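2024-03-11 09:14:02 DEBUG pipeline.ingest accepted 1 chain
2024-03-11 09:14:02 DEBUG pipeline.ingest length=313
2024-03-11 09:14:03 DEBUG pipeline.predict start
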Amino acid sequence: MREDEAALAYGGGWVDRAGALRADPERLAQLLGGADTRVLPLWQDHCLVNEAVPVQLTGDAAERARAAAAETVFLGFAAGRAVFAVDLSELTEDAALAAAGATRVVGVRALVGRLSPAEAAIQGYARGLLHWHRQQRYCGACGAATNVQDAGHARRCTDPDCARLYFPRIEPAIIVLVETAGSPGRCLLARHAGAAENAFSTLAGFVEVGETLEDAVRREVAEEAGVVVTDVAYQGSQAWPFPAGLMVGFRATAESDEIRVDGVELLEARWFTRAELRQRAATGHRLGRPDSIGNHLLSGWLAEDEAAGSAPR
């Protein structure tokens, strides 16, 4: 795993997903009863925690939580131990806390920075998979109920005349740092609809049907900011289980510095020099959320002139 991959939250290949075991109920039953097996309880997309540490259940406590859960899914192996997740969402909050032996519920994103990258990744994985199960209880083709398959990694329609098989879906989105050519370097940031005054971030948008990732970059920037870009270059990707995203990061170069915001997705957009971004950071304006690939793109861009030994611009 490269260092730049490890820097991004919710990913990094920490879990052996053990796909071959998903169709082996006997082995899964053995793992569920194992003394070292961990069970992660979640409630309505939130972690159940003690002292800001997500609860990890074993033994009898794990069995009690599984008995109270609507769904149990197999996540794989982490650090050599089998890991399952259970969904307590059908309980009241107090009942879920009692079933898990927890003190409160906390959003996964609120714990980033307090957890190791591996633990943040597995909590995000559990959140995304359990959320999908709650949204796919009925067949989209015939309306019949669906049942869990493959240890929680698929669902099948119960109508024998339909029997459609469903898998968790990923919704890809691009996120892009647009920069000007030449010196001094400048990057394009925008204030999105609903964002606070003076809150600027990188541009992003969902990939549409029949579109490549690079096409999506060019379209989104042109539609929202009126900027034509070239030299679209892949930078990295990030699992984004909120609820089922995959953020794909790019950099691109603007053909001109003219901006025409759409007034719908974007309320305003501006070009920022590195010196201006450093000043914003020094006065309390974050470079995007610390768990986001947008922050990673901006931090990398800011570091380039320092790495080259040039004076800050």
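2024-03-11 09:14:41 DEBUG pipeline.report The chain has two domains: 3-135, 171-307.
2024-03-11 09:14:41 DEBUG pipeline.predict end
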